[in-house]
Amino acid sequence: MLNLRELQSRFFYSIARPVRSSEDEWQGFDPLLLQVIRKQGKLGPDARLDIYAQMYCARLLDALHEDFPRVAAILGEERFREIGRAYLRQFPSTHPSLRYLGAHLTKFLASQAAGVSAPFLGDLARLEQARIEVFDAPDAEPLRLDDLPMIPAEAWTTIRFQLIPAVQILTCAWPVQQIWKNEHFTQSDNLQPATTVLRVWRQDFTVYQASMDAIEQTALAGIQTGDPFAAVCATLEPLVSSLEEASTLIGSLLLRWVEDGILACTYEV
Amino acid sequence: MSCTVPYLGHGVGLRTQHFPRVWDGTVRVDWFEVISENFMLRGGRPLAVLEKARGLAPVVLHGVSLSLGSTDPLNEMYLSDLKALTERFQPAWVSDHLCWGSVGGHYAHDLLPLPYTDEALAHVVERVQQVQDRLGRQILIENVSSYLTYTHSTMFEWEFITQIAQRADCGILLDVNNVYVSATNHGFDPHEYLRGVPVDRVCQIHLAGHSTYETYLLDTHDGPVITPVWELYRFAVQRFGRVSSLIEWDDKIPEFDEVCAEAERARAIEHQVWELPYAQSA
Q1: In this complex, is the C-beta atom of A9 within 8 Å of any C-beta atom belonging to chain B?
Q2: What is the pLDDT of residue A187?
Q3: Which residues of A touch B210 (CB under 8 A)?
Q4: In this predicted structure, what is the pLDDT of residue A20?
Q5: What's the CATH number for A119-269?
Q6: A3 touching B (Cβ < 8 Å)
Q7: Do A136 and B41 lie within an 8 Å CB cutoff?
Q8: What span, in angstroms and rounded, lies between the C-alpha atoms of B238 and B235?
């Protein structure tokens, strides 16, 4: 007879068929476990345990599919499930919530042949992972347009803005936001590599992403590191023809960020 | 001792598809049950919707990953999150399943069956007590659908759950559909199960649909409650009295009103059994 610990261990590793064996090498369920499962009616121990094995796989693959819909669409159902099964063998869930199930998928895809046939898949998975993380990032009261006139004129030289927690900045080798926008994108569509910096953010309950040009990247990086607004403005100067142009650009960026709700209402003067 | 929770009437499980109805305040229901893990978040829409939901009707937390029967230590982070959730949302009660779902730090995200032995009994009783101490409240434990039993079990499932409830002083969330599914899969009389469970421990009833395969039933929650399960529910109401009931619908989820119609059917049965004047949820 198996004690409880041993039974659970053999049960889990039977249904998860993890890392140590590939699907091809699988030799059947653990014989010691099968000995303690009752045969009832038409179903023997194998068939009964297999119900759990099938459910394990189906449930977790569905969860991965839900979190990475565009990766799944690009790969196609069959290939996605094949890769998903291999992923689950290597990275079984270690968290009580399914939300973290795909946390290693980006790394895993990079090591797979699928990454070669669709080299942008890793970046696409990173974008989808960032969207998940931004979706339930901590809430924060955003700075509103109405708040801006309340900031004293003399404060603009020293003021430091903060980003809300629900913002991520991703640097990708591929313009994967184009794939996200195009539901009908396939691997045969022509996508050229191009370094792309995306900001991914949540406004109210909706997650967005947008690519940033060099000016916005520089300015937002300054905000993210906590530079005073005047210093952020100064960092733009080498990228444009004059300080006046830099001031105009930072003004319009500030308005865009406030409209997108990515600046927190807390700031230091 | 016994389990004491308020009678809430006939509720529905709140799922993401119905968040807009909660957000615009157009739902009418006696109470909501939500999956605890889906709200163990730091921010965003789910928590905002849950705040809104509890302004509309009482809320109950129902977990799927506590893994009460696991031989792994209880997950401290999980317990901490669950406690924070109960403190913030003040649910009418908290429940999870009589099963295990993790071992060696790995989670199956499934409700896996325990052997019904003295070893498992002592283990689960201790774990339920630990959880109750940590949360500072009684919890309810739910019977799960199962597809296998063990040769070394020494008692029936209804004896096992009864012993746990009495020794750990917790309540029972009786899933009538799960009783029906397991009874069919293992060849026992579901009425015998219900007769074997003590009346004063049953604090909530679950109802759901399931799928029929050639050689077994699968607890899929993807359709309406079938007639034999409604009949078993009628029997349960006769035995256990007016117990808060809840409709679970987790796959192929229809419009909110269709789920509510199932809750109304439960209400109608309860009112027939107890000869109460019938009135739909306001």
Answers
A1: yes
A2: 77
A3: none
A4: 46
A5: 3.90.930.50
A6: yes
A7: yes
A8: 5
Q: Are B110 and A7 a contacting pair at CB < 8 A?
A: no
pLDDT of residue B279: 65
- Tell me if chain A has a CB within 8 Å of the CB of B149: yes
Q: Which residues of A78-111 are buried (b: 16+ CB within 10 A; e: fewer)?
A: eebbbbbbbbbbebbbebbbbbebbbebbebbee
Hey, is the C-beta of B145 within 8 angstroms of any chain A C-beta? Answer: no
CATH architecture of B10-273: Alpha-Beta Barrel (3.20)
Q: At residue B274, does pLDDT exceed 70?
A: yes
Q: What integer is the mean pLDDT of A64-76?
A: 94
Contact B106, A12 (CB under 8 A): yes
Per-residue pLDDT of B1-43, as tens digits, reads 677 899 999 999 999 999 999 999 999 999 999 999 999 999 9
Q: Cα–Cα–Cα angle for A138, A60, B223, nearest 5°? A: 95
Task: Flag if B112 and A8 touch (Cβ within 8 Å).
Answer: yes
Cα R_g (chain B), whole angstroms: 18
CA–CA separation, A160 and A90 (whole Å): 44
